[in-house]
Design a protein that fits this description.
Structural class: alpha+beta
Distance between the termini: 40 Å
CATH topology: Metal Binding Protein, Guanine Nucleotide Exchange Factor, Chain A
Order of helices and strands: EHHEHEEEEEEEEEH
CATH class: Mainly Beta
Strand order of the largest sheet: 5-6-10-9-8-7
Helix content: 10-25%
Oligomer: single chain
Length: about 180
Amino acid sequence: MAGCQPHEKVSSATTATPAPAMKSESKPAESATAVTPEKVVKTEAEWRAQLTPAQYRVLREAGTERAFGEAYEEFKKQGGGTYYCAGCGAELFSSKEKFDSHCGWPSFYDPANAKNVKTKVDVSFGSVRTEVLCAVCDGHLGHVFTGEGFNTPTDKRYCINGVSLKFVPADEVKK
């Protein structure tokens, strides 16, 4: 199994604070399961006002939270539920596809709602990786790695920054 590959620009901020109430240009997380949210476009000032500094740094500047931080510890304790984009509320991942890769960041082997997750080639820092983005707001989520030998159905590891996610427990999703 390959070792953990750190993201770029590591931040010491690790608190995963849910995004404030959604503004009118984005749909609330509850509707993300029924329809694809409209594309969310905001000014940098609007993003800064909505997101915590850690969320802004990761989602809008392609930063990375510190490995094995508070968001990762919270992720390991979370039970069944759904993970939404902390920026726009789009459904991204499900606890059904999460696993502990022991790399220090939340890991999933597949997105729960593939139409809300997109990838692109990332050639920063002298290596070629696959960046994972929210397809609705273009927020940076992390990277996806393949062929690491994890015993998962896809042999993929979506290595995602915890601050870019908002967890909603299963009993609250059903409401």
